[in-house]
Amino acid sequence: MKLGFDYSRCLWVRIRDEKSRSERVIRNPRVYLAGPFFNPAQRERFETLEAMFNVRGISYYSPREESVNRGFKIENVEQADEALNNDLHELRSCHVMLVQLDYLLPAELQLAIVQSPSPEVPLGRMQPVHIPDTGTVWEAGFAQAVNIPRIGLLTGKMRLNIMLARTLNGVALSLGEIGEWLNGGPVPAMWTGEMR
């Protein structure tokens, strides 16, 4: 099922099911902020996005904020299940998902591996690895399965996996583009960059 939507001044979202040609309009939609928050750079990105939503009075759910507020610690299976079930409950109550595709790392922890030979990278040279967080990708897949529109945020250079590239409803390439969208600007366009 392919979804299209308009998000104008964050007061409503129109979701169209192209297959059944049905449409629903939701006033004051709630946005699920998906992304990793395992290190200071990732937490800072979350806090920036949360501030962007707060200043505009837009309803959202942030797993990062929830884990801080509830003191979630994942030290055993029961705590992991509680966090998972809480996030799934919140995800089902949201109307749109913002998917952070960057896996930000502090400069001293940047990963590099030898990738398959290509004309751009001589054999044996190291290059940064840009791979989205697996939990975030899982959440985006779940949102796809329950027909929640998804906007990606990708500020680094990355080739997106075809499954992500073709199922996200749009991909913003900067925090500024997210800000424009939240202010009533155009919905970010679907991914047209490199795919793998």
- The N- to C-terminal Cα distance equals 22 Å
Radius of gyration: 17 Å
Beta content: 15-25%
Low-pLDDT ranges: 1-11, 113-117, 123-128
* Whole-number count of domains: 1
Shape, principal axes of CA atoms: globular
The oligomeric state is single chain
Element-by-element helix/strand order: EEEEHEHHEEEHEHEH
Could you name the CATH topology? Rossmann fold
Number of helical elements: 6
Sheet with the most strands, sense and barrel status: 5 strands, parallel
Strand order of the largest sheet: 5-4-6-9-10
The overall pLDDT, averaged over residues, is 80
Helix content: 25-40%
Secondary structure category: alpha/beta
What's the architecture in CATH terms?
3-Layer(aba) Sandwich
Can you count the beta strands? 10
CATH class: Alpha Beta
Structural write-up:
This protein has a single domain (3-182), classed as Rossmann fold (3-Layer(aba) Sandwich). The longest helix has 17 residues, at 40-56. With 196 residues, it is an alpha/beta fold. The chain starts with a strand and ends in a 14-residue tail after the last helix. It has helices at 40-56, 63-70, 77-92, 134-145, 162-165, 175-182; strands at 3-8, 12-17, 22-27, 31-34, 60-61, 96-100, 112-113, 127-128, 150-153, 170-172. The strands form 3 sheets. Strands 5-4-6-9-10 form a 5-stranded parallel beta sheet, with helices on both faces.
